[in-house]
Amino acid sequence: MTDDLQARIAALSPDKRAVLERRLAEMAAERGPVADGRIKPRDRSVPAPLSFAQLREWTTGRIRGSNNISGALRLVGALDLSLLSKVLTEIVERHEALRSTVELRGRTPVQVVQPVTPVPTPLVDLSDLPAEEQSAEIRRRADAELVRPFAPDEAQRLRIQLLRLAPDTHVALFTTDHAASDAWSMAILVREFVTLYGIHLSGGTGGLPLPEIQFGDFAALQAEEFTDERIAAELDYWKKALDGAPTRLALPVDRPYPARPTFAGAQYHIDLSPELSEDLKTFGERENVSLFMVLLAALSVLLHRYSGQDDLVIGSAISGRNRVETEQLIGCFANLLPLRMRLSEDQTLRELVHAARDTTTAGYDHQDLPFERLLEQLGIGREAAQTPLIQVMINVLTAPASTLELPGLTISPEPMDIGPVSIDLTLFAMPRGETVSLQWQYSTELFDTETVELLASQFVNVLRQLVTKPDTAVGDVEFIVAPVAAVTAPAPGAARGPGFVELFQRRAALAPHTTAVVHDGTALSYAELNRRANRLAHELRRRGVGPEVGVGILLDRSPRLPVAILAVLKAGGYYVPLDPSYPAERLSFMLTDAGVRVLITEGEPATQGTRWPVEILRMDSLPDGPDHDLPTLPDPASLAYMVYTSGSTGRPKGAEIEHRSLVTFAREVVERFGLGSGDRFLQFASPSFDVLVEELFPIWLAGGAVVIPAEPMLGGGADLAELLERERVTVMELPTAYWHEWTRSLRRQDRRLPDWLRLVIIGGERVLPDRITMWEPLGVPLMHVYGLTETTVSSTFFRLDPPDQKRDWPNLPIGTPLPSADLRILDSRLRPVPVGGCGDLYIGGISLARGYHGRPGLTAQRFVADPDPAHPGERLYRTGDVVRQRPDGNLEFVSRADTQIKIRGFRVEPAEIEAALSLHPEISESVVDVHEPEPGDKRLVAYVVPHGSPAPAAATLREFLARELPPYMVPATFVPLDALPLTPNGKIDRAALPAPTAERPAEPEDAVTPQNPVEQSLAKIVAGVIGVESIGPHDNFFELGGDSILAIQVVAQAQDIGIRISPLDLFEHPTVASLAAVTTAAPAIDAEQGVVSGPSPLAAPQRWFCGADFTDPHHWNVSTLLELRETYPPEMLREAVQQLLVHHDGLRQRFQLNGVQTRVRIALPQGRTPFTAHDLSGLDADEQERRITELTAEAAAGLKLSVGPLIRFEFFQLGDGRPDRLAVIAHHLVADVTSLRIVVEDLRTALLALAAGQTVALPAKTTSWQSWARRLASHAGTQPVQSQRPYWTDLVEEASGVLPSDTAAADDPGPGTVADAREVVARLGSAETTELLQAVPAAHNCRIDDLLLTALGRTLSEWTGRPRTVVDLRRHTREKVFGDIDLARTVGWLDTVHPFALVSEPGSTPATTLKSVKETLRAVPEGGLGWQLLRQGNDPLPDSPAELVFAYTGQLDEPSPATDGFTVLGPAGPAASPLARRLYALDVRAAVNGGRLTVTWEYNHRLHHRETVERLAERFLAELRALAADGDATHTPSDFPLARVDRSQLDGLLNRLQSGRETP
């Protein structure tokens, strides 16, 4: 019985209680007679089944690895540890669930009761820590206990850890297996603990009465009672109750659902006032409803307004203890109850509360059906990211007593951080005396704290209205709303103030010689710009241009463009910008529709002809005329310009902007951008795009200059960056899609931006979070803008300074509005939505356009009357965009409310493209949609139904549309369909439209393929970027769907592999064959020879390490101890070490540890040199060895990640003719085994030079660590890496890595700590090693690691009894992934670790296993690099199941000319802290040392006996000897790559050759 029900029953009058009893009797009669209502003891000769809830939690634990619940108590006073153990043991004895394991009998899990054993009470003394450190350690240990799994065979499903804070103060951490208990059980556990402890403490002999039954009895009865008929009846109710219910709630989340949630959560507390709490109680009594029902109704109203949904499913956790005997029983009973609430706007709050009562009561009547079974029957599957059906829950709890007093001991709850949160949002209500305490528990992966605080305050507001005004309609409930921003009303007379023309003329008079326009190195002053514009304006006046007269401007980007625009404004007319790249038909329509009288152009325009009633005015043949200012100025209410946008009717529409809107906008943008006379603003936008207004007018009001490029900006990083450098641009605005590619290009090229670039403005599409991360190191602020042509360019602005760019921005806000912009977020009834809720964006204010030229109907449709009575007669523009206001006041774009889309910053109405397609004689019908193959890469797709068959070719349709539409509106892909898919109500079913296939257009039979390597490489790149399987050398890039944004990607990828092309090359040579003819393919190795420093991204292994939460992370090293055959002065060694640090940037890395957000910096080679000399010559030999061991151990543990350097050189002078020694110790974050060899080689080179009195000249650098890390970061999201996902997923999910163990290791299951490690070393003889290294690989055409892995696979197969075992393979090879990257001499953590499946079938020969290993190893993509990259990010691959890691490190003491002065003695100091956890049960390392193969087997002595590991080591050597004895040559398909044969084909061919059935 729930607390809520108990409270309600207690509050009933005798009459109402009688009614309740009668109703319960009727329900019992409906359910049929029961011989005996009480639960009887089960048959103990067979194991008990699992209860439904227990099975659910046991399964969850198997999937997650652990599934526990926990609690904590603070005990102050004298604590008897032996009594504590005794009491807990007694509780375990009383409740079998706490000592029952789950075992599989066949395929069925059952619970098996284990004998009672004493409950250990381990004590950890924290009394020597300061108070704040104690608190942190309590939380850390509690978190660790919560996720530490119970071993399957561990008898006790309860454990306790006691933390001593002071002699009389302890904290007890209780943890139980969720399959054995639930939250109710934890309350029983604490209650019984306090009671029994008190009884025994006072010397009492009695105890608690024994439970009548055990949990297994309940589970057995549940299995017996839940017959198929009973389940069918319950299912029938729930299917009807939930028929048509939504499976998702549209919650006001701050971030999208993660692909792989971590279930991180937090909580927010708020207490209702005593007055409101009393009102709740009174209202409940009056309406005969419980507190739960009132809260459920209020929560429904809140979710209704925030989601816009009137059909909601809200969950509630029930105890599942609906029998008296189970109320005090520990076990897993809990269940989830989905409660469906339906609301209507005219329903009163009182009626809604009654509906909540009916829903709750009916749900409780059918509470026994397990929630999982319900989901299964409803066909609702689980997803990793979201809980199905229920995303919001509400529960009413009984608040626990704050303090419990025993003789000499005070016990109180210890507040703890919440554990994993699997429900998005949960409301807990706890009556506490005169108040009700509310606790909101939420997923921090979805919600910010501010959002939850806002929801909580809105909830209290709704609750107050519910109890004080219950007859209020749901639709009339008032919510806390706030204006999007404080709208600054235009100052009185603003419309009559100086307009832009007057302000510009004042600027020209005040600073006539200041530069206004820069083009191709030539500057145009304000005075000259004003004179040229005046001359043209006089001519326009002469031709009849004045107020409300349109002038078309058809000019490319040049100084003539701003002259023409200014001239039209001065003449009093309005300009209509036209893009010369548009088709003639479209330009013709726009000129006619706009009522243009004069067309300003240059040269011979393609649009010239008698079709248009316009005068042509060529600027290159302008007659002389006056150049003074005109006597009159434009009226503020007259039109300034008209810009055409895509139209849903099939024709573009012209938005009319007035002078007052223009000047107000320009003034406010100057303020928002902080523009000044020293700024240079890049003119990037198309001449017909309204962003041109933002690029010209504000910078002129500020007295700065606009920079107009000499050529169109087609390219990526280099082109634009060079322009910024050359023209000293300070501010620029880019379409978001272009900025995405430019940012990636800058990252690839490791390009920096000039210091004077102080602001980059982006807008038009959603910003990709990874591009913000890429941008951050550049140190340039971003401004994210949002706006529409109809509201004068931009309305909202969000500035992102470099420090803020480090934050996670899954949806970058669009910001806050300009003072003159009146923004409203309204719902479907035109009411303001609650703060934080989603709604349609409407914009009003002086920035509003007059309307659409010549379209009164469309104007009335989109420019609507302001519904706010405070603004009579005003208008609002309905944007069609759905937005939400964040708690900080910034807006976020959520989605479009219609089909309009944005492509590269341009608004596109699909209906306009569809209308154009309908004019094609062979097209019956069509629909246009957007396809996004990867985030940010939006492409138009046209689905066409032809009149007959076949459909017109894509090239034909593209050419047809190009006559009518601008290039950005021509679809990239055309998909022919037999018919368009329709919904049941006859509308186009866009969700059913097929995704475009990766097929190229049909090609002629004599089509040729790319011929040379350059053509082949370019064809592969172009096909990948466009999204087709392959292309021919003569296929046109743009006819296949390419555009300027995709061209940037092609160029960047080509440059990555050393093919030097520019974007302009691709535009001029759009086929692979022609492009290859003008390019070169000489890879230029990225190898900076100067000093490298600055920020660096985390490489994949570094990211793994930083996120792994290691104990003593500063101690995780690689090292070597060298014996020096020659004598070197300490100062010479110090100088040599300093030279190494200058040369290798990887050794100068510093780390500010913060999980995966760790910051990495490569320091300059300055400061202290990490070299220390120790004179041990005064000690005897034994004492010297002991001291060397001590000093190397100190050095190994003394590396400081944030301070550095992370490498140490410890020099030991031994004297008395003994060779000196040098220990080289590096943290693994900056070096691996191969790197250490490079360091030693370079050390020897430097010493030889210094000894000879020469300048140190180390070998030329290869790619720097910084460049490699940056390339790796950009490579992670590419298609070649992402395409490996199925390979790795199949590998880790289809094979087991579990190894047998010798002991249960209950105290410390798993690999254990470094202190638990022991070693077994096995060696081959010198002759055997030589044969293994030389003869055997030659005979089998394989490598030494193939042989070692074969022996390991056969050893593991025999040990595990399985043919297939996954191990992790640590590889020290440096695979060549990029053509311009050379890692041969790069120092850093470059080894890779990846899972690898070893297969050795029973009865197979060593040669057969070798073939399998060899082919599998050759098939590993990119040498395993992809595994490490795919293990990071928002959708990481599953963990490797491997419990063994294998590494072959080669010939450690192999002599080389570079190291012949050193002898390797072994490692220097311990590699890791003894407290650090080991990663594998077995760590197998093979190396050749002293001419002998040495194999070290490191194991946890708690898991494996030494004898077991010795047998494995001997078996491994025996398998190697068997391979050496097999003299038959072994060949596999990878030996013959050109033949393209598989294993069976090759075996067949070899068999035929050997048998003579096939001759050469």
Automatic annotation (TrEMBL):
Tagged with keyword Phosphoprotein: yes
This protein's record includes keyword Repeat: yes
Carrier domain location: 1009-1083
One Pfam family here: PP-binding
SUPFAM superfamilies: Acetyl-CoA synthetase-like, ACP-like, CoA-dependent acyltransferases
PANTHER family: FATTY ACID SYNTHASE, NONRIBOSOMAL PEPTIDE SYNTHETASE
Protein name: Carrier domain-containing protein
Origin species: Streptomyces thermocarboxydovorans
Upper taxonomic lineage: Bacteria, Bacillati, Actinomycetota, Actinomycetes, Kitasatosporales
